[in-house]
Design a protein that fits this description.
This protein is mainly alpha-helical. It has one domain (9-451): Hydantoin permease (Orthogonal Bundle), CATH 1.10.4160. It has 17 helices and no strands. Helix 1 crosses helix 7 (165-192) and helix 6 runs antiparallel to helix 14 (341-362).
């Protein structure tokens, strides 16, 4: 049973928002919306949040506070309370394994944000055109030593925060990081409003064009909400284990998703006006942040300062999210092996950092190596491509479906009543969302990803 706790509602809220926002909301959300036509995709994204992500987040909150331990321990405790098999704890182990793999490459991308923030300070994060920006980004990816250095710096920063514990590390850091993130976002939106492209950005984001909607668009929208907020691996179980009884879990889940959505929309309003004002492509894909935006910064007054604010924003969001995945692993390791937080944190940083080198090398010295060639689904993929595919298209969906099924069918009764409070229509709707709707939506995304 955990002895650590958040100091109150505000701390828990900042922690869950930090975990939910991350690079998925600040980086992936804008380019996915851009690649899928804007407003119609956004509307489908919101529907997916309501029907699949919100119920699953509430489920993780319920399991965590009822179980009072790591993801594995909490699920086992809830299973025992409800007369279910403790083998359900394997779901938590599955989530920890997924978290380890995700953190290994997430830390590499976090290192990119540090590198470009440093470049911005030196005036090197702007470019006159796409070719120049692409050359800079390509040179960075081709340097395994530089990528490894920034990967190590990012992993070390995350470890230093986690090693301080819930109140002395996570809470203290998030109390600073989250307000800073939203202040930078608002500042960038204010600047973007002067660029001349805000009208087109608002139309693009909020005027749905349903002629661009396909089944793939709908599944991509649901998948973006599921993967960017990070439910399905047990992070929210771990965070909720530190939550007091005075916190309303359903209201907290709604507030967290609302704050994440606001952050995502602010990111879009900070990026798209600048993109449109300078005739750039909003469907720039993953390179939107590291290739397209430097071109925009190169065309505006004070571009170097704006570039630094932008990449500082990416760094803060990446760090807040990485902390939560790190804590998922550390909480389990400390319980499983009976070691202190310091030892668990250091071992996690070392092992995960070493695993991350497979991602670093996938962009340079191992770019032409496809180690899983005999496996049809992974054929032609680099180490990073394979890890990304396995976690995104296999491990997270299976984990999400398992958590929804566990609480919806096996442990729903007394646990939901105790943790959410009372009986009523809302609670019954939540049960059926967990039993049928959320698993069906996640399963559809899973099948689409598995067949891609």
């Amino acid at each position: 049973m955990t002895t650590q706790h958040w100091s109150g509602r505000a701390a828990f809220f900042l922690a869950t928002v930090g975990s939910a926002v991350g690079l998925g909301s600040i980086w992936k959300f804008p380019y996915m919306v851009g690649a899928n036509g804007g407003g119609a995709f956004l509307l489908l994204y919101l529907v997916g949040l309501a029907l699949a992500v919100l119920p699953l987040m509430i489920a993780e909150f319920v399991i965590g506070r009822a179980g009072q331990g790591s993801a594995v321990t909490s699920i086992v405790h809830v299973a025992k309370k409800t007369g279910a098999s403790p083998l359900w704890g394997l779901i938590g182990g599955w989530g920890v394994a997924a978290g380890f793999l995700i953190l290994s490459f997430y830390s590499v991308f976090g290192g990119w944000t540090i590198a470009f923030a440093v470049q911005a300070l030196q005036g090197g994060a702007t470019a006159p055109d796409g070719a120049a920006a692409g050359a800079v980004f390509g040179a960075f990816l081709a340097d395994p030593g530089g990528m490894a250095l920034f990967h190590a710096i990012f992993m070390s920063l995350t470890a230093l925060i986690v090693i301080g514990g819930v109140s002395g590390g996570l809470e203290r850091a998030l109390t600073v990081l989250m307000p800073v993130m939203f202040l930078i976002l608002i500042g960038l939106v204010g600047y973007a409003a002067t660029s001349g492209g805000m009208g087109r950005a608002l139309t693009f984001l909020f005027q749905p064009d349903f002629s661009k909607v396909t089944w793939k668009t709908a599944l991509d929208a649901i998948g973006l909400g599921f993967f960017s907020i990070g439910v399905g691996i047990g992070v929210m179980i771990t965070y909720a284990a530190y939550a007091g009884r005075e916190i309303g879990l359903a209201k907290m889940a709604i507030s967290t998703i609302a704050a994440d959505t606001v952050a995502s929309l602010l990111a879009g309003l900070a990026i798209f006006p600048i993109v449109f004002a300078h005739g750039l492509d909003p469907a720039g894909g993953p390179g939107l942040m590291f290739v397209t935006m430097p071109v925009a910064f190169g065309q505006i007054s004070g571009g170097a300062i704006v570039a630094f604010g932008f990449f500082a924003l990416l760094l803060v969001s990446a760090l807040a999210s990485a902390i939560s995945i790190f804590e998922l692993i550390v909480a389990w390791a400390a319980e499983r092996y009976g070691i202190g937080r310091t030892a668990a944190t250091l071992w996690t940083a070392i092992l995960c950092g070493c695993m991350g080198m497979a991602t670093v090398w996938s962009f340079n010295i191992l770019a032409d190596v496809h180690p899983f060639q005999p496996f049809g689904i992974l054929k032609g993929k680099t180490f990073f491509d394979a890890i990304d595919w396995l976690t995104s298209n296999l491990m997270l969906p299976i984990g999400g479906i398992a958590i929804a099924g566990f609480l919806g069918w096996t442990a729903a009764g007394r646990i939901l009543d105790d943790e959410i409070g009372g009986r009523g229509t809302g609670l019954e709707i939540l049960r059926w969302l967990l039993r049928l709707v959320a698993p069906a939506a996640i399963g559809a995304v899973f099948m689409a990803g598995a067949l891609a």
